[in-house]
Design brief:
The chain is mainly α and 114 residues long. The chain has one domain (2-106). Helices cover 75% and strands 5% of the residues. The chain is built from five helices and two strands; from the N terminus they run αβαααβα. The protein has helices spanning 2-17, 29-53, 55-60, 65-80, 89-110, and strands spanning 24-26, 84-86. A two-stranded antiparallel ribbon has the order 1-2. Helix 1 (2-17) crosses helix 5.
Length: 114
């Protein structure tokens, strides 16, 4: 049940952020929901590989390279989804930071620790 709530929260936040950031576009809420699922799969498979490969840069930048990895994963998700468009790396970077912060806050409120 927590997985469904987390996916819905991520989709709602991603769709809501399109009204704030002009460089991120979704065709509708269904596209945002598909984005949440694709992002979850990419975070499960691709992100650990990128974090291992980028470990030296992450250490040198004191962890800030993790933000770049998150933006790259967002851009990769954009390539898989037809109903989503991100205008560039910097929009993906800003979008990933906002998405991470807001979903973390809302997941803490709406999900239980069971």
């Amino acid at each position: 049940m927590n997985l469904i709530i987390r996916l819905l929260v991520t989709a709602a936040v991603a769709f809501g952020l399109t009204y704030i950031f002009s460089g991120v576009h979704f065709d509708g809420f269904v596209s945002a929901l598909i984005f949440a699922v694709v992002l979850g799969v990419l975070n499960l498979i691709v992100t650990p590989i990128l974090k291992i490969l980028g470990l030296p840069l992450t250490i040198i930048t004191l962890g800030l390279f993790s933000l770049v990895i998150n933006a790259l994963v967002i851009l990769l998700a954009d390539k898989f989804i037809d109903g989503m468009t991100i205008d560039g790396f910097w929009w993906a970077f800003i979008f990933s930071i906002a998405l991470s912060l807001i979903t973390s806050l809302l997941n803490g409120i709406f999900t239980s620790e069971d």
